[in-house]
Design goal:
Order of helices and strands: HEEEHHEHEEH
Number of helices: 5
CATH topology: Trna Endonuclease, Chain: A, domain 1
Structural class: alpha/beta
Distance between the termini: 50 Å
Radius of gyration: 16 Å
Shape: globular
Number of strands: 6
CATH class: Alpha Beta
Helix content: 25-40%
Largest sheet: 6 strands, mixed
Number of domains: 1
Strand order of the largest sheet: 1-2-3-4-5-6
Strand content: 15-25%
CATH architecture: 3-Layer(aba) Sandwich
């Protein structure tokens, strides 16, 4: 007897871990090629986590949320909360769902089409400038997290 897939499971949402990794990698390659410093799995002050947070040379902050399917997007309503922590917000999706996603992703977010080798911006995100205090707090968080990750990579086993 086949087991039923729970409605909130990764299979039911159309999540594909390998595809998610590929889209994340491609979006990261795009952001780096544009001169951004990028951190994955960035913890935000409200306890949420951004898939990618990119810091531009000019101090601008972009968040990219990776979606592996339309069902994944529809099941996730938290993306609007990310707007408080960036100047521009984007979704990154695989090419395989780009054609079936016409009209699904909101115009108030940018859209990136990505695979494991790179990405292209389908449409730019509108700019919503962060308040100075919020920007400063995020810049400090970004620097501390980057330094901690570098320390762990260079000095495994050290506190």
């Amino acid at each position: 007897m086949p087991l039923e897939t729970p409605a909130g499971s990764s299979e039911a949402l159309g999540l594909r871990p390998e595809q998610t990794r590929s889209v994340t990698r491609g979006a990261r390659i795009l952001l780096r090629s544009q001169g951004h410093a990028v951190l994955s799995e960035f913890p935000l002050p409200d306890g949420r986590r951004a898939d990618l947070l990119a810091l531009g040379r000019d101090g601008s902050i972009r968040i990219v949320e990776v979606k592996s399917s339309v069902a994944d997007f529809r099941a996730d309503g938290k993306w609007r909360h990310y707007r408080s922590f960036c100047d521009r917000f984007y979704f990154a999706i695989p090419l395989a769902i780009a054609e079936s996603a016409d009209g699904v992703f909101p115009a108030e977010a940018g859209l990136v089409i990505a695979d494991a080798h790179g990405a292209a911006v389908e449409w730019e995100a509108p700019i919503h400038p962060l308040a100075s205090a919020a920007r400063r707090a995020l810049l400090l968080r970004f620097g501390a997290l980057a330094a901690t990750r570098l320390h762990v990579a260079l000095h495994p086993g050290e506190p």
